[in-house]
Amino acid sequence: ANHADLAGRRVVVSAGGTREPLDPVRFLGNRSSGKQGIAIAEAARERGAHVTLIAANLEVAEPEGCDIRRVSTALELQAAVTEVAHGADVVVMAAAVADYRPANVSEGKIKKDQSDDGLTLELVRNPDILAGLGHAEHPGTLLVGFAAETEPDDDRIIALGRAKREAKGADLLVVNRVGWNEGFASDENRVVVIGRDGDVVTRAHGTKQSVAHDILDVVVAEVTAVTT
Ligand code: C5P
After folding, report:
1. 30 within 8 A of 203, measured Cβ to Cβ
2. I want to staple 145 with a disulfide (CB 3.0 to 4.6 A). Which of 6, 134, 170, 221 is the partner?
3. What is the pLDDT of residues 199-208, one digit of tens each?
4. Best substitution site from 54, 129, 193 to test ligand 1's pocket, by max atoms within 8 Å of Cβ?
5. C-alpha dihedral (91, 84, 29, 180), degrees to nearest 10
6. pTM for this predicted structure
7. Residue 108: φ, ψ to 5°
8. Which residues pair with 160 in a beta bridge?
9. Where are the alpha helices (DSSP H) in the chain?
């Protein structure tokens, strides 16, 4: 790749997975390691961009040379992204955001009740951060979403990706298959990138670093097309 093709661009990347507290010691979380998002942040920086990384509970080391904002919950991630997205050339939402959070966060540790044999948690919906960005508020910002799907079938994954890109108003949607042994903790990834017409713009597989550069190749083409 051309390693100065994002020079002068401002890129925002969210990475990792949000945690939603139940009480002072417990949370609802997910298995996103943050590796793919970090690889994108690093690759964008290598290609000359100014990168702000919104880091949600990363399981790997933070990259060098990026502005880093640490967040934990979906609401914190939303506040951070919304603040830095203004005027950005690209926003990549690679973070796995909890769809729901506990309706009530207990002040003290939730205790077992000896008399019952179960516990029901009430959850409320978190806002959809990517869908909430939108081109009305962010004209000229390329919005890139991710979708982690557990469907085994490739065509089905692509169909889900098309629908998700539309629903969220993203310009590009990167779909990857995740499961017990694929995607999240792994050092490799296999993705399909869906474009504005719903077509498959690119397919990439390999290390998360090489996949990051392949995704950025598409981003660069789009950003360049928008501004020239
Ligand atoms: O709907 P789903 O969670 O599959 O969508 C994934 C994409 O949407 C990712 O880009 C993720 O960062 C983003 N997302 C979000 N806010 C949510 C849930 C997901 O921005 N509440």
Report:
1. no
2. 170
3. 999 999 999 9
4. 129
5. 20
6. 0.95
7. -110, 170
8. none
9. 35-46, 74-85, 129-137, 154-168, 208-227
